[in-house]
Amino acid sequence: MPTSEELFWLDRLDEADREEPSLAPYAMRSRKSRGRLHPDNPHPFRTLYQRDRDRIVHSTAFRRLMYKTQVLVAQTNDHHRTRLTHTIEVAMISRTIARRLGLNEDLTEAIALSHDLGHPPFGHAGERALDACMKEHGGFEHNLHGLRIVQLLEYRYPDFPGLNLSWEVLQAMAYHSKRPDTPELQPFLQPGQPLLEAQVVDAADSLAYDTHDVDDALSIGLITPQDLAEVPFWRRALERVRQRHGVLGPLQLQPTVVRALIDWQVGDLLDHTIARLRANRIHNVDDVRHLHSPLVGPGPEVTALKTELEAFLRREVYEHHRVQRMTAKGCRIVTALFNEFSRAPHLMPDRYARRAQEGSLHRTVCDYLAGMTDRYAQEEYLRLFQPFTSV
Ligand code: MG
Fold it and tell me: From the CA of 279, how far away is ligand 1's center (Å)?
């Protein structure tokens, strides 16, 4: 039972106060946030960023990540990553790093959980196909589309469009975009660096996919352990595992090397980031923003090892003929659906058909398509183009 003094303490502290003891001086505080675009009352027991996180998890776009491709189309088997499990891994690694650095863990988690919301079906192949379809109509990029989802397309709240997330989460999405000249991004972009919480998610994203893409490619049989002998990062992690555990059977060996790789990268990133924070005398959020380069990231040795690993992944996995076949099929489906709905917008559900009629035909078709999961896009394709098999 808590004592009466402890109960009094609970009464006195609001959530933003409770955030305070765990934060370093250079962490973002919810109290210092620029807030939300649409007025919204504070919640009695959740901070601004906790609420952002909850709104993201409750969104339709988040649930759809379950059936969206990371690298391999969701139907390949039931064991490899999808965009949802990738997102959860990124959030988990990001929180570990944020906590160790004294950053705002709730903000970091919200940024991580939203970082891939704008991906269309069929991964980067789907993104390229939609961008080509939208060439004359403003193009398509997943970060920009993510911002559209959380600012406009989600429709679950009566008082505002989208999720009305805090400015800091929106800014992290904007900084991630490969098209910084886009007018919609300008309100969010400032000269200098993103918040450390956003930098952590960026680094964790890259660390997570490099590692899990090797794991998935091995499990699916796109590459073999012998192929990985030419990759120094993998070989050295394997040596560490052998030193520690001796000879392991195949069921434990692969996941143990994967864990060792993640642990090595996170430890290295923490050491080098802490050293940079000290060397640059970082005392507050403004110090972070005014620097010319990001503070969060691996040291030179791991950076070089990662570069070699990424070259291997590009050559042996992303360009593997089995992956290429799936991506070609994905492109074909996205392009065919785009052309068909642009020709006949009344074939889309009412909500989209109405919007298309009101004027923004191609962007509406693009929004509808980008929201689809791999599975739904394939079913739509069959529904629209497969000849009737029976009368
Ligand atoms: Mg990602």
Answer: 30
Separation of 13 CA from ligand 1 center, angstroms? 36
Given a contact cutoff of 8 angstroms between Cβ atoms, the answer to whether 34 and 166 are in contact is yes
Residues around ion ligand 1, judged by CB within 5 A, are: 116, 205
Decide if pLDDT at 290 tops 70: yes
Residue 166 DSSP SS3? strand
Question: CA-CA distance, 53 to 114, in Å (whole number)?
Answer: 8
| Distance from the alpha carbon of residue 124 to the mean position of ligand 1, in angstroms | 11
d(CA 144, CA 136): 17
Q: How far is the CA of 260 from the centre of ligand 1 (A)?
A: 21
pTM of the model: 0.94
Q: pLDDT at position 70, please? A: 74
CA–CA separation, 231 and 34 (whole Å): 45
Task: Using the mean position of ligand 1's atoms as its centre, give its distance from the Cα of residue 387 in Å.
Answer: 37
* Token pair recorded at residue 249: 């059977």
To 10 degrees, the CA torsion angle through 350, 354, 356, 358? 180
116 Cα to the center of ligand 1, angstroms: 5
The identity of residue 164, as a single letter, is N
Q: Rounded to whole angstroms, how far apart are CA atoms 65 and 192?
A: 31
Please enumerate in sequence order all residues whose Cβ is within 8 A of that of 131, keeping only pairs 6 or more positions apart, or say none. Answer: 139, 140, 141
Per-residue confidence (pLDDT) for residue 388, from 0 to 100: 79
Residue at 319: amino acid letter: E
Going from the Cα of 208 to the center of ligand 1, the distance in angstroms, rounded, reads 8
Ligand 1 midpoint to CA 16 (Å): 29
Domains of the chain: 39-323 (1.10.3210.10)
- Per-residue pLDDT reduced to its tens digit, 293-345: 999 999 999 999 999 999 999 999 999 998 899 889 999 999 999 999 999 99
